Structures are given as C-alpha cells and as structure tokens.
Amino acid sequence: MKAIEITNPGEVKIVEREMPQIGKGDVLLKIKYVGFCGSDLSTYLGKNPMVRYPRIPGHEISAVIEKTGENVPEGFQKGQAVTVVPYTNCGQCSSCKQKRFNACRFNETLGVQREGAMAQYIAVPWQKVLKHEALSEVQLALVEPLTVGFHAIDNGKVTDIDIVVIFGCGMIGSGAIVRAKLRGATVIAVDIDNVKLKIAQQLGADFTINSRDQDLHEELHEITNGDGPNVAIEAAGNPLTYRAAIDEVAYAGRVVCIGYAGTEVSFTTKLWVQKELEIMGSRNANPSDFEAVIKYLKSSHIDEKILISKTVSPEDAPMAMKEWSEDPGKIMKILVQF
Asked: Where do the Alcohol dehydrogenase-like C-terminal domain residues begin and end (predicted)?
C-alpha cells in the first residue's frame, strides 16, 4: 500500500508498505483524509524528541471500515464512516488510575511514538474507533485536533462568567475558542496573523488582538477594565506568549499551557506567587472531549472549510510539508486526501 514517510528531518517520501495485519480485536480502516499536525511539522524539522526515523506521521483521521477482526462487536460494519482516538493508555499508571487517560505516562500517539495513519490503510483496536456517520469525511478529520483545545478549556474550568484570552489561533487555539464560547465565556483571541484572527471571529471570538501591531497589555486592560482575563490559554508554544500569559492574567487567575515551546522559558516568580495563580498543563484529550467536538460539528452552522488551508494528494504532501515549514504561521490545517 502507499504511505507517506518522514524518512529523516527535512525528507518526506512516498513509500510502499505491506498491508496491516489485523488482530482479533482490530478494525482495518481505509483512510479518506489525514491532517498534518504540529507534531508532524516538528518531526519534519527534526525537533520532536519522541520520534525515531523513519516515521509514518498522522493521527487526525477520517476513514471507513474495511474489515473487522473476529472479536470485534457486531456494531462495527464495513463501510461505516469513522474517526479514531489516536492515543494509547496503560490503565495502570497514576494518571490512568484517575481516569485521566490523556496523560498516561506510557502513551504512544499514532504518528509520533508509533507508525501513523498517512497511508491507504491502518489497523487499530476497535475500542479506539468512533463511528459517526452524521459527520462528513472532512469533519471527521477535524475532530481530534479540535479536541485538544476543548480539553484545555475543560482544564481551565471555564464558565460563563469568565473572560478568556487565547494565545495562538491555529487549530488548537480554534478548538479552545469554540469550547470557551460554548461555555458562555467572553473570548479574546490573540495572534500575529490577521487571517487567523478573522477565522477566530467567525468561530465566536468577542475580541481579537494582533499582538504584532497592537499593544497587548493596553488592549487587554481596556477590554477587562484593568483586571486582566480570568483565564489564559497558551496555544502558541512561544516563550513570549508563555510569559504574556503570566503577566496578563488576572489575580487569582488560571493559566493553561498546551503549546510546547522550542526553548526553555524563564519566569520571575513574583507574579506567579503574588497573583496566586493556578498554572497547569493540558495534553491530548479525553473521550468526553471527543464527544463534545462531535456534538459541536453535528449542530454547528460554521463552515468547517475555513479551518482548512489546503487539501493535497499523497504525491503533493512532501511539497506541502516543505512550504509549511518555510512559513508555518500562515497555515491552519493541511489535509491529505487518500
């Protein structure tokens, strides 16, 4: 079968691989669309410490069931449209024992620690397959990336009385914008790209700030009557936005960090302690986040195509990845159509 492989940093190839073997509890999926994720870009750039080369990337999946193993429940039938929860969990570590499976100590994500879905077929355990035929093939590929932002808002305990600032309006930040608005919060979207800020408005952001052209502190001061936002979501993975989240969040505020910064980030502890901040990480997503995103996509009137920068064939994927690496700030989502 045809697959996309990141052979070495900066090198993407179309390769031939053997068809997956399915176990008794597995489902063989025929891939329709797979999204390139920021982790895939990091792999391409040689900056992902969890990856060994060569690696088939991809964990944002739209597929149909091709075949099922003998122990798969009868509800899984050939031709059903599905997406996939791409994470593993051991069930025994301290996180799993708290049912926080998203933060499993031994998690292996498709396309990162193990071979991903950028191929014509993939086999996965039936427990990781989500059937949702009410969603289109394109919508199914957007479920997983949106769940990550949904999960961050859940971690931040956002309610309808909160003002939430979201740093970074890519796919992860977009998910956070949507979830915060569904919770009834006032949302401030911050980015340095006006196209992304326009999309943030379409997704429901009440205010947008281009922190390259506008004074971030003054804008937030005016919007929040000098208090600062109650919740800050760091979805950019930049040392500047990590510091801004601490600086700008309100006293007794909450800071949720999703992005991986490429370098170490130093903080002065004064504001951390003085504001009595809750600062937490946010990783992957839980089953409830997948359910919430699917419900949103089924009922929303938003055209999900605003989230997709381009759709390419497998043959065009190497060039698409190269172009993305040269100007990452301009891309929301690249889908590969098999």
From this structure: 172-298
